[in-house]
Design a protein that fits this description.
The complex is a heterodimer of chains A (about 280) and B (about 450).
Chain A: E1 2-13, E2 16-27, E3 31-35, H1 42-49, E4 57-62, E5 65-66, E6 75-78, H2 90-100, H3 105-118, H4 134-146, E7 152-156, H5 164-179, E8 183-187, H6 191-197, E9 200-205, E10 208-214, H7 215-221, E11 226-233, E12 236-243, H8 249-256, E13 261-268, H9 272-282
Parallel strand pairs in A: 3-8, 3-9, 6-7, 7-8
Antiparallel strand pairs in A: 1-2, 1-4, 4-5, 9-10, 11-12, 11-13
Chain B: H1 3-18, H2 21-47, E1 53-59, E2 74-78, H3 84-89, H4 91-94, E3 98-102, E4 113-117, H5 123-144, H6 150-157, E5 165-168, E6 174-177, H7 179-213, H8 217-221, H9 226-263, H10 269-278, H11 286-291, H12 294-304, H13 307-334, H14 342-362, H15 370-375, H16 382-389, H17 396-424, H18 434-442
Parallel strand pairs in B: 1-2, 1-3
Antiparallel strand pairs in B: 3-4, 5-6
The chains are: A alpha/beta (about 280), B alpha/beta (about 450).
Chain lengths: ~280, ~450
Amino acid sequence: MALIECKEICKNFGEKVALDHISLEIPEGKIFGLLGPNGAGKTTLIRIINRITIPNGGEVVFNGHTITQADVEKIGYMPEERGLYRKMEVGDQAMYLAQLKGMSAADAQRELKKWFIKFGIQDWWKKKVEELSKGMAQKVQFITTVVHRPKLLILDEPFSGFDPVNAELIRKEILKLRDDGATIVLSTHNMESVEELCDNIALINKSRLVITGGVEEIRRNYGNNNAELVYSDADGEHTEVIAIRDDNSVLKDILAKPGTIVKSYKELMPRMNDIFIKLVTEGE
Amino acid sequence: MNTHIVSIIIKREYLNRVKKKSFLIVTFVVPVLFAAICVLPSLIMYAAKEEAKTVAVVDASGIVLPYLNDTESAVYADYSAFSPDTVKAKLGELGVDALLSISALNEEKTLTAELFSEKPLGMELTESINDKINDAVEAYRVESYEIEDLDNIMKSIKANVKLTSYTIGEDGKETVSETGVYMIVSMLLGMIIYMFIALFGGMVMSSVIEEKASRVVEVLVSSVKATELMFGKIIGVALVAITQFALWIILAGALTVGATSIFAPKMDAAAMTEMAGMAAPGTPDLTSVATDSEASVIFSTLGNLPLGEILICFFVFFIFGYLLYASLFAAIGSAVENEADTQQLQIPLTIPLLLGFFIALYAFKAPDSAVVFWGSMIPFTSPIVMIARIPFGVATWEIILSAVLLIATFAGCAYVSSKIYKVGILMFGKKSTWKDLWKWLKLK
C-alpha cells in the first residue's frame, strides 16, 4: 500500500514551471529514492509533500486521505539546507523542535534523552550549538528529525556533511527505522547509497517524472540481459560476458569442457549511476 | 492558526531574549544613559568654564569703563593712557589677551567699539562686553536728558508681565497650563514610541535573518506554518518590549522615590505643601495657582494632563505601530541572509519612521498644523506623531480615525508581509531586491 500518493502535482513560480504533472506512489514501510539533477524540482516536490509549499494543481494523498496540516506531525523532515539556532543550548533546541512536532514536554524530554544516550552525546545537552563541530551538530539534527517517531521520514541529502563513521551510523539508523515500519524518502545524488538502500525510486528531470518503480526492476530493464561468468580450466582463469538465453547454449558449451571450474556467475545489471546519466542526457 | 503551536513559538522567542545577559544590561544601562544625557549638558557647561581673560581697555569716551566690572571670565585693565595702536602691537608683551578700543562719543551720542585679540574670544565673552557697552551708552543718554529721576522712571517703565495660560476643558473648567511641560511630555512620548518601534522592529528583522542564515528555518516551517512562525516571533518580541518597558517604569519609580527621600528633607515647608497639592490633581485652585511658584505650575500642568487618555493611546499606538513595522521588517528580513544586505531594502521603512520622529519632535510648536495633523493620520507616521499631539488635546474622532487607519493598514501589511515572508525565507543564496519581493507577493 502507498503511504504517499502524488496525483498530477503541478507547481510554477511565476513563469517558471517547477513541477509538471508529477504522479507517483511511495510504498509504505520502504525506502524510496527521489533522484534527479540539481534544479530538477526534487526539493519543490518534497516541500509540497511537507506542506511547506502549496501546489498550483494536483493533490497529495497521505495514508488514504488528502494531506492536511495535522498530518505534518507524522512527518520528519531533514532538509538539504539545514541547521540549528547557533546560540541556543542543544537540549532546549531539541525540546523546542520536538514540541513543534506535537510532543508533550515530558515525552520529548524522555525520548530525546534516549536518543542522546544512544548516540553517545548526553553530555552535550547544555552546550550551545556553536560549540559543536559540524558532525556533532548533524547528529543532533538527525535526532530532532526522528524523535517524534514519524511515519514518514524525508531526508534530503542526508549523508552530506557527515564523516564516514557518522554516515555509517546514520545509514544503520535509517535501515532500523525502516524495519520498525517507517517509510523513508531519500533525496540524494549518491547513487551507491540508492542501490544499497532504496527499494523504489523516482527520477525527476526538468520538472517531469522520467521513471518510477522498483530499483531491481529498473536496473534489469535497462540492462542488456548479460551475465558475467568467471571460470578456470587448463589454460588458466577466464572472464566471459555471455548473453542470458533460454537455451543457455554458450554456458553449456563451456561447462561441457573437461576440467572447467566455475568461480562465479552473476547477472550483469547496469549501475544506477549509468541509468541516471543515460536518462538525464537522453532528455536533452 | 494553531494557537498551541504559536504559544510554543512565542514562549521560545520571549524566554530566549529575556534570559540573555544583554537584555538585563540594556534594562539597567539605558535609564542610566538617559539620565546621563539629561545631566551631561549642564555638566559640560560647568566644566567648560575658561580661565579669566585679561582685556586691555582703551576708553576714549570715558563712560564705558565703569561698567566693565571684572567677572569670572574676564578681567579688565585700564590702558586709556596709551594709544590703541601701541597696545595692539604689544598684546603678548603686556600679558593681555585682547584689546577693547572704544571711540569717543560723537554727536549722535553713540560710539564705536572694536575688539582685537590674537586668538578669537568666546561668544559668551564678546556678547557680555557688547551688552555692557550698550548699558553704558543707554545710561549716558538717559543722563543727558537732564530730567530729574529719569533713571528711576525708565526702570519703572520696564514691564515684567507673566503670561499664564489656561486651557478650557469641555466641561468649561479652566486649568492652568504650562506649554513647556506639554512640550517636554510630547517630545518624550514621541521619542519613546519611535525608539521602541525602531529597536524592537529591528529585533524582529534580525531574528528572521538569524533563522534564515542558520538554516533552521526550513526545519521550522516543516512543522509549523510560515505565518505562525512570523506572528509567533512578532508577538514574542512585543512581550519582550512590554517587559522591558515595565521594568523601566519600575526602575524610574524606584529612582524617583530614592531621589525624593534624599532631597526631600532639604525642601522647605512651602515646597512640601505644593507637592501635596499636586498629589490631588484635577481640582486646581485657580486663585492659588495664579500666585504660586513655577514648580507648582509644572506639577499642576502634569496633574492636568489627560493621563488616562495618554496611557490608553500610548498602548494602542505603540502596539499597532510596532506590529505594523515589525511585520514589514520581518518581510525584509526574510529576503536576505545577513544584516548588511538589509540597508537598501530598509530605506522605505526607515524614512517614514524618521519622518514621524521629526514631526513628533516639532509637534509642540503647532500641534494642530496641517503637517502635524496629517502626520498623525497617515499610518506610517501616526503612532509617533499622534502620541506627541495628545498632551495638547486631540479631538476624540481624530484619535479614533487615526487608530482605525493604523489597525487597517497593519492588517493589510501583515497580509502582504506574510506572503513575502513565506517565499523569502526559503530563498537561499541570492541577494534579493524590492523587485523580487514584488514578484513573491504576486506568487500564488
